[in-house]
Design a protein that fits this description.
The chain is about 55% helix and about 10% strand. The chain contains ten helices and seven strands.
């Protein structure tokens, strides 16, 4: 009788727990739980407590799919990782394999889009437009009042006044500002080989400037002797 008396309350307790609405975290491999009534989700559907993240969409996989489908221009893995505060690359890859997302290689990285072709096409168009705008903006930061064509003309004029090494390093600097795809974009803008841009970028990243100045021959301050002669 004792064992029978203990079984009933235990079964009743489990049944009651099954009726409680709770959520598991999408971060920390789902190890943390909270009552749904406690979570105060943001407009994007996320809520965190002490660096533990919860989503109104459920698991990380479901959250990844929802965010990509609802996005204006899709996401690459780095972008989504920053947005969700957890590593998202493996979840994205898994959802592609399951046919719940699609991906395309853009500027040497994968970008993930909704599985529906019509939605994905719109997301791709928005991404292309954003990329073009950001690239142009990064090149005219010094004077945003200039029209785009005027800004390009100014850059090309400045570029033409540099010597070979200065051109390579300047092109590399602008490529670094743009990030992914910068080498190709700057090469097209300045009419030079992408490998030249890549070399300049790599020299800047490595600090490999050969210890030489970039001053044109005859430039710089006059020596004291020349000053006296004048």
């Amino acid at each position: 009788m004792k064992s029978g008396q203990n079984v009933m309350p235990l079964c009743q307790e489990v049944w009651n727990l099954s009726r409680v609405e709770y959520l598991s975290s999408y971060s920390h491999r789902g190890k943390f739980y909270t009552l749904r009534s406690v979570a105060k989700f943001s407009r994007e559907g996320l809520w965190s407590l002490r660096a533990v993240w919860f989503s109104r969409f459920g698991t990380l996989l479901e959250t990844v799919v929802a965010w990509v489908h609802r996005s204006e221009a899709g996401y690459d893995a780095a972008e989504l990782t920053r947005a969700l505060h957890v590593e998202s690359k493996h979840a994205l890859t898994r959802m592609v394999r399951q046919g719940r997302l699609q991906r395309h290689a853009i500027d040497n990285r994968y970008v993930y889009f909704a599985v529906e072709d019509a939605t994905a096409d719109q997301q791709r168009k928005h991404r292309d437009a954003h990329a073009a705008t950001s690239r142009t903006t990064s090149l005219v930061v010094s004077n945003p009042d200039l029209a785009i064509e005027e800004a390009k003309a100014t850059l090309l004029l400045f570029f033409s006044m540099l010597n070979e090494k200065q051109r390579r390093l300047y092109a590399g600097l602008e490529s670094l500002k743009l990030g992914h795809g910068g080498d190709a974009h700057i090469a097209e803008l300045f009419g030079i080989d992408p490998h030249t841009v890549a070399r300049g970028r790599q020299e800047l990243e490595a600090g490999d400037l050969d210890g030489q100045t970039m001053r044109a021959k005859g430039g710089g301050r006059l020596s004291q002797e020349k000053k006296r002669l004048r």
